[in-house]
Amino acid sequence: VHPNVSQGCQGGCATCSDYNGCLSCKPRLFFVLERIGMKQIGVCLSSCPSGYYGTRYPDINKCAKCKADCDTCFTRNFCTKCKSGFYLYSGKCLEKCPDELEANNHTMECTSIVHCETSEWSPWSPCMKKGKTCGFKRGNEVRVREIVQHPSARGNLCPATTESRKCIVQRKRCQKEGKGKKNREEKRKKSNKDESKETRQESKGRAARRQNREQRENNNKTQPKKRKAPNKEQDLAPVDTAH
């Protein structure tokens, strides 16, 4: 062992030196060079820092730098996050997205263009004028539809969601407010009155019939009983004059 190399190192180093720091790492750790001023110091980490990607070799695991426009990467040629001012597309960092795509400033990626989508039209509403369906001949009817998918920045804008057209109806008078209820109340009272009248008439009829029946019974009780007519055969029998 070189006199400047020590094996009793700290921080995951397998071998180290006072001037260069870690020279090799313990198993499964990644070796990376960090610049401090004009000097580079070797350190051993469990994962590579931002801007680096890890590569495992039989004798050592190393962290290598990503491309200049890449913030994090899987390999040198496949970026997973770009630095500010660049948009990620298929592992690459671009200043401008392709024509068939658009830049998403929220995710800093090139994404597909999304166009507006709407539902089917609803049926036409009843013909109305000033919120009423009576008291006019010409009015308007409307139909609506809903937005199902809002567009992206470069997508087609949404069309109108409301349509109106003229309509003609058979003119009819509007029923005054409260008049319909008043008419129904009057009809109900009249019906109740008629029913009460019929009930009273039926009661009077039953009372009169009962009174007539009682009168007839009283008359039958007070009239004298009629004598029976004599038997004609008895009147014609011969009289005994022997005495």
Automatic annotation (TrEMBL):
Ranges of Basic and acidic residues composition bias in the record: 178-219
Keyword Disulfide bond carried by entry: yes
InterPro entries membership: Furin_repeat (IPR006212), Growth_fac_rcpt_cys_sf (IPR009030), R-spondin (IPR051514), Rspo_Fu-CRD_dom (IPR043601), TSP1_rpt (IPR000884), TSP1_rpt_sf (IPR036383), TSP1_spondin_dom (IPR044004)
Domain R-spondin Fu-CRD: 11-110
Pfam families: Furin-like_2, TSP1_spondin
Function: Activator of the canonical Wnt signaling pathway by acting as a ligand for LGR4-6 receptors, which acts as a key regulator of angiogenesis. Upon binding to LGR4-6 (LGR4, LGR5 or LGR6), LGR4-6 associate with phosphorylated LRP6 and frizzled receptors that are activated by extracellular Wnt receptors, triggering the canonical Wnt signaling pathway to increase expression of target genes. Also regulates the canonical Wnt/beta-catenin-dependent pathway and non-canonical Wnt signaling by acting as an inhibitor of ZNRF3, an important regulator of the Wnt signaling pathway.
Name the UniProt record assigns to this protein: R-spondin-3
Organism: Rhabdornis inornatus
